[in-house]
Amino acid sequence: MTSRSYSAGSANRQSKGNCKLPTYEVNFDGIVGPTHSYAGLSYGNLASAAHEHQASNPQAAALQGLDKMRFVHELGVRQAVLPPSRRPRLDVLRRLGFAGSDAEVIEAAGRTDPALLAAVYSASNMWTANAATVSPSADCADDRLHLTPANLVNSLHRAIEAEETSQVLRVIFDDEQHFMVHEPLPPGLTLSDEGAANHSRLCREFGEPGCELFVYGRDALDASQPRPQQFPARQTRQASAAIARRHGLNDTTAMFVQQNPLVIDQGVFHNDVISVANQNVFLFHEQAFVETLSRVQELARQYEETCHDRLILIRLSTDDLSIQDAVSSYLFNSQLLTRPGGGMTMVCPQECAENAAARRCTEQLLAGDNPIDQVEFLPLRQSMNNGGGPACLRLRVVLTEPELAATHGGVIFTPQLHDDLTAWVRRHYRERLVEDDLRDPQLAMEIAAAFEQLSSILNLPPRLFGL
Fold first, then answer.
1. Of 34, 117, 236, 368, whose Cβ has the fewest other Cβ atoms within 10 Å?
2. 270 classed as catalytic
């Protein structure tokens, strides 16, 4: 493991006016939905494939997620929630030729195409790192916060989230003076976009202009560029570039780096499985990118030109942590959080404590010359079994104080909201779910009743839940 600050000389940049406003990073976590299951729908996600057809525990999954939110809140870091999407999406099944009453549609789909039924029941929007790409107002040309919901066209169960996510974000960020919520990119593999799981932001202070790193798996229009041979590259360069243009980022703010196709074929389906950034700290694996060393040095130079600061680079070698251990432990999918009083906390999944190599890496991080001075291991087994760690469960949104005031207040996390949501989960969620349960129309009725109450708890329009 190596850690160092990188300096390429000094540079100056005029800060925007809003950087002087109090500014916060708010972690928007997805509430795990009542249909959390192990259907093995995510090709290239090794954990998802390994637990296919096993019984899940939706109640435990949701409670684990809520407890993580409470932990982050108690650190003094701002926390919010995003609701689960309405399920099942029977409108999708009807568009695919299934007809009749709701019960008849469910029965026919379960009998003829169980994987299709599982897709329209999927609770995959719980992993809100895929919900959108977010650029803070300090980075954008029009001084507004920009959000582009991900189109997630790589798989059906995720692609159907795009419209729902757009609707939810427009309700939560419903103030055009402060926010711009774009349409998802047009569907199509050339513009395949998986959101913030392939996007990182580096900055000196949250409210100051930063450097946004867009990581793509393939160039959709240049066949000469390296590509994975086994698993899909889910993010294209064209999608990342389009988002940067939409958000009004300039050449010093946005940087584009290709993910190493060799690690994609080993289960690193998103960049947040192989690197993580927070403010002036960039923790990465030496095999993360194509020509990792030169691209990281370029990032450090660009960071200094943009932020007038030095970037702390922490490189983990293959000797420190193999790709297999990185994927099984999800060390890089930990959350790096800046505490209000100073210092950084690394929120790791419990699997990092159980993996000897990952545990050693966390000990070395604590002993090293870097701002990470606290490591916590949290139980998120239900999410991890489907390939989602702490960072998968949250979308990072940097908000100035006026922007936070303009955000829908019903989703801002408080101890009371935690208690209300915990009681709601215990009342409505099953403790065991298998694929055959999806064929029972009673499950759909249970979900509708649950969402009716959730709409009231979060003060969100019932239409967002198909009510």
1. 368
2. yes
